[in-house]
Amino acid sequence: MSNTIKSKDNNGNTIEIYNNKIIQYSDEYRDTLRDRDDIYNNGSLFTGMCKYIYRHVFKYNKIDTSNIKLLDNIWDIYTDMCYSFGKRPTLLNFSLLVGISNDTFTTWATGEYRSNGQGTQSEHSRTVRKWQRECESSLADGATEKNSIGCIFALKANYGWVETPQRIEVSNAQQPQLSDQEIAEIAQDKSKDSDIEPDF
């Protein structure tokens, strides 16, 4: 889906009209950089862009936090930006973008807020947990595809992942010394095996 609609101005020139203010201010922020492509190599510039979008889109137009569907749509726009700039989505940066405390997301995810009191998860809880799974999935991709230490650390710290020990093959290592009795028993077992005719 295109972020812009092409139209003609009064002089017949083609102009682009943004469908989405978030994308508009994302582009505007990149225009302030020395090189627009710097955002791909510098994580703090992406965070700065989230803050820039917040100041221009959400700071004076507060989001209705009861409208979880709206927030989920904004999450989709945010994650599209993350992936297009080679960044991993985080609830911290999303919090910065929309101006909702990360603690609020935590209370939604744990069901401390907006639960119906009957043990059923609220739409807010299900949605934030879905966001968390997407963040975890992105980190897992980084850990498996790029063997990123940062991703592995984040998975351990935030999602309880643990490393499983790898099986190590030892070759040309010294074998443990057998006693004379053990050697005699092995030799006796081998002689018994040689007396048995194969059953074909």
List key phrases describing it.
2 strands; two-stranded antiparallel sheet; 8 helices; 200 residues; mainly alpha
How would you describe this structure to a colleague?
- The chain is mainly alpha-helical.
- The chain folds into two domains: 1-62, no CATH class; 69-77 and 90-189, no CATH class.
- 56% of the residues lie in helices and 5% in strands.
- The protein is built from eight helices and two strands.
- The chain has helices at residues 21-31, 43-58, 68-84, 91-98, 102-110, 123-145, 149-159, 180-195, and strands at residues 4-8, 14-18.
- α6 (123-145) runs antiparallel to α7.
- The radius of gyration is 29 Å and the shape is elongated.
- The mean pLDDT is 81.
- Helical proportion? 55-70%
Count of DSSP-assigned helices:
8
Count of beta strands: 2
Distance between the termini: 68 Å
| Overall pLDDT score | 81
What radius of gyration results from the CA coordinates?
29 Å
Structural class label: mainly alpha
Q: Write the H/E string, N to C.
A: EEHHHHHHHH
The portion of residues forming beta strands comes to: 5-15%
Low-confidence parts, pLDDT < 50 over ≥5 residues?
A: none
Number of domains: 2
Strand order of the largest sheet: 1-2
- Major sheet size, sense and barrel closure: 2 strands, antiparallel
Write down the overall geometry. Answer: elongated
What's the structural blueprint in terms of helices and strands?
Elements: E1 4-8, E2 14-18, H1 21-31, H2 43-58, H3 68-84, H4 91-98, H5 102-110, H6 123-145, H7 149-159, H8 180-195
Antiparallel strand pairs: 1-2
Helix pairs in contact: 1-2, 2-4, 5-6, 6-7
